[in-house]
C-alpha cells in the first residue's frame, strides 16, 4: 500500500520491457493497457521533452487514475477504450505508422483483484461480475445463470483449460442462481480438486469466465495486427502475457509475421513489400528470482518482443 492506504500495483518485467522498447527520448509510444500506470511511468521517465506517450484502458477506474498524470505531464494522454480499437485511436491522432513502440501488459491489475465489487477474486464475497468495463456487456453471473450447460462447459474447458469442465458446469446448473465470487468458488471446490498444492480448485474456472466475459483472446487477436500497422520501421512491439492461451496467440502471431507465406517462400526473389513484417527480438523472457520474491504475481509473466521491419 502507498502512504494514502491505496493498493499499489507493481508492473511485471518493467526493466526488461523498457529495454525491449529501445526508448528514443523523442519518440512516440503507446501503452495499450495502462492499468495503474507502472509501465507508463517507466516509459515517461525515459522520454525527453519532445517524447510522447498515449495510453488506453477499457477500465473506467484505470482511466480515472490516469487523469492526474495527464494533467500534470503534457507528454502523456489517456483514452478510455479497448485496445481492439487501437488503429482507430492512433489514426485520429495522426500516429498510424509513426509509433516507435507499443506495449501490452495483459494481466489483471492488483486494484481490480482486491476490489470486491469488481468480481475478479475467488476469495471475495462480492458480486460475480468480472467485466473490465462494468458499463458494457453482461457480467459473469448474468451469463452463468442463463447459459446452457454445454456452453458453460465449453467456455470453462477452452478458456480455462480445465479438465473437469463438464462436472463444474453440471454443478453450476444444478445450483443456479450463482451470484457471488465466493459462492462459485465453494461450488467448484465441492466437485473438483486443485491441480497443484496451494492453487484453489476454482482458479481455472475464474480465469475462463474472465477471459470469456471480456472477449480477451478475440481482442488480442484483433489488436496485434493493428499494433504492427501503427509501428514505424524498426519500431518495437512488447507483449507481456500471463497464461498459455495468451502467450500462444502472441508467439504464433510474431512467428507468422516474421516469416514469408509458404507460396512466396518458394520464389527465387520476393519484393520487399511482400516480405515479413516483423523480426522477433531475442527469446521469451520471464522474471528473475528477485522479482518473483518481491512480486509473486509476476511469476507467470512472459515477455515477447518483435521489431517492425522496414517496408
Compact overview of the structure:
By secondary structure, this protein is α/β, with parallel strands linked by helices. The protein contains 14 helices and 7 strands.
Describe this entry's structure for a reader.
The longest helix has 15 residues, at 216-230. The protein has two domains: 14-110 and 216-308, 3-Layer(aba) Sandwich (Rossmann fold); 134-213, DNA polymerase, domain 1 (Orthogonal Bundle), CATH 1.10.150. The protein has helices at residues 14-21, 38-45, 60-72, 86-93, 110-114, 140-144, 149-160, 165-174, 181-189, 203-213, 216-230, 244-257, 262-265, 289-294; strands at 28-31, 52-57, 76-80, 99-105, 231-241, 278-280, 302-308. Helix 2 links the parallel strand 1 and strand 2 (52-57). Mean pLDDT is 92; it is low at 1-7. It is an alpha/beta fold. Strands 3-2-1-4-5-7-6 form a seven-stranded mixed sheet, sandwiched between helices. Helix 1 packs across helix 2 (38-45), helix 7 crosses helix 8 and helix 7 crosses helix 10 (203-213). It has 14 helices and seven strands.
Structural key phrases:
311 residues; alpha/beta; Rossmann fold; DNA polymerase, domain 1; disordered N terminus
Describe the SSE topology:
Layout lengths: L13 H8 L6 E4 L6 H8 L6 E6 L2 H13 L3 E5 L5 H8 L5 E7 L4 H5 L25 H5 L4 H12 L4 H10 L6 H9 L13 H11 L2 H15 E11 L2 H14 L4 H4 L12 E3 L8 H6 L7 E7 L3
Parallel strand pairs: 1-2, 1-4, 2-3, 4-5
Antiparallel strand pairs: 5-7, 6-7
Helix pairs in contact: 1-2, 7-8, 7-10, 11-12
Amino acid at each position: 500500500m502507498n502512504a494514502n492506504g491505496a493498493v499499489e500495483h507493481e508492473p511485471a518485467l518493467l526493466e526488461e520491457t523498457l529495454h525491449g522498447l529501445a526508448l528514443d527520448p523523442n519518440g512516440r509510444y503507446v501503452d495499450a493497457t495502462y492499468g495503474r500506470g507502472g509501465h507508463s511511468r517507466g516509459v515517461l521517465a525515459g522520454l525527453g521533452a519532445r517524447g510522447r506517450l498515449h495510453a488506453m484502458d477499457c477500465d473506467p477506474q484505470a482511466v480515472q487514475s490516469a487523469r492526474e498524470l495527464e494533467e500534470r505531464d503534457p507528454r502523456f494522454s489517456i483514452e478510455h477504450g479497448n485496445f481492439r480499437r487501437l488503429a482507430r485511436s492512433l489514426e485520429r491522432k495522426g500516429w498510424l505508422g509513426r509509433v516507435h513502440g507499443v506495449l501490452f501488459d495483459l494481466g489483471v491489475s492488483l486494484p481490480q483483484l482486491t476490489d470486491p465489487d469488481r468480481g475478479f477474486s475467488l476469495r471475495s464475497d462480492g458480486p460475480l461480475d468480472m467485466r473490465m468495463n462494468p458499463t458494457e456487456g453482461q457480467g459473469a453471473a448474468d451469463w452463468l445463470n442463463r447459459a446452457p450447460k454445454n456452453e458453460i462447459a465449453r467456455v470453462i474447458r477452452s478458456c480455462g483449460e480445465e479438465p473437469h469442465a463438464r462436472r463444474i458446469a453440471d454443478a453450476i446448473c444444478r445450483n443456479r442462481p450463482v451470484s457471488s465470487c465466493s459462492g462459485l468458488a465453494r461450488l467448484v471446490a465441492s466437485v473438483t480438486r486443485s491441480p497443484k498444492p496451494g492453487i484453489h480448485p476454482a482458479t481455472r474456472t475464474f480465469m475462463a469466465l474472465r477471459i470469456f466475459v471480456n472477449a480477451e483472446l478475440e481482442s488480442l487477436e484483433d489488436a496485434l495486427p493493428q499494433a504492427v500497422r501503427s509501428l514505424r520501421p524498426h519500431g518495437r512491439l512488447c507483449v507481456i502475457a500471463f497464461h498459455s492461451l495468451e502467450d500462444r496467440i502472441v508467439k504464433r502471431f510474431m512467428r507468422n509475421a516474421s516469416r514469408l507465406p509458404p507460396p512466396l517462400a518458394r520464389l527465387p526473389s520476393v519484393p520487399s513489400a511482400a516480405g515479413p513484417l516483423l523480426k522477433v527480438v531475442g527469446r521469451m523472457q520471464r522474471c528473475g528470482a528477485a522479482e518473483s520474491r518481491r512480486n509473486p504475481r509476476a511469476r507467470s509473466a512472459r515477455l515477447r518482443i518483435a521489431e517492425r521491419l522496414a517496408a
